[in-house]
Amino acid sequence: MTYETYNENETRKIGCELGKKASVGDVYCLKGDLGTGKTVFTKGFAEGLGISSHITSPTFTIINEYTEGRLPLYHFDVYRIGSCDEMYDIGYEEYIDGDGVCLIEWAELIEDIIPQNAVWITIEKDLTREDVCYRRIEVK
């Protein structure tokens, strides 16, 4: 499925719709350059789970846990991870096999340990377009 958005609210809404459909054990992998809207998408996803906390990218903490929604959300940012072994050191398997939903920014960096049934979401912006808010979101 491919979506096109023209502002942050539209990107957030797509995330929200996917969050509403999420189930225990689901893994969502976000790919996209810096500034493409991965965290905006995640904010919407959290809304879809009924999470009202302020969502931030866990760039330095690697993972943020949000537990007040209908399902826990485990939000990873693995941009600073040097190897898949580091993921195991932080308890990755417990989250993946846990009672919530995992959303992983920069998942392509740890693709070797991503479950085969994960949903991959690529967010791209087109720098040649005059509309700087345009995003193309592909969900596989």
Mean pLDDT: 94
Number of strands: 7
Instruction: Please report the distance between the alpha carbons of the first and last residues.
Output: 7 Å
Q: Determine the fraction of residues in helical runs and give it as a percent range.
A: 25-40%
Summarize the structure in words:
The chain has 140 residues and is an alpha/beta fold. It has one domain (2-139): P-loop containing nucleotide triphosphate hydrolases (Rossmann fold), CATH 3.40.50.300. Helices cover 26% and strands 24% of the residues. It contains 4 helices and 7 strands. A 7-stranded mixed sheet has the order 1-7-6-2-5-4-3, with helices on one face. The longest helix is centred in the N-terminal third of the chain and has 14 residues, at 8-21. It is globular. The N and C termini lie close together (7 Å). The model has no long low-confidence stretch (mean pLDDT 94).
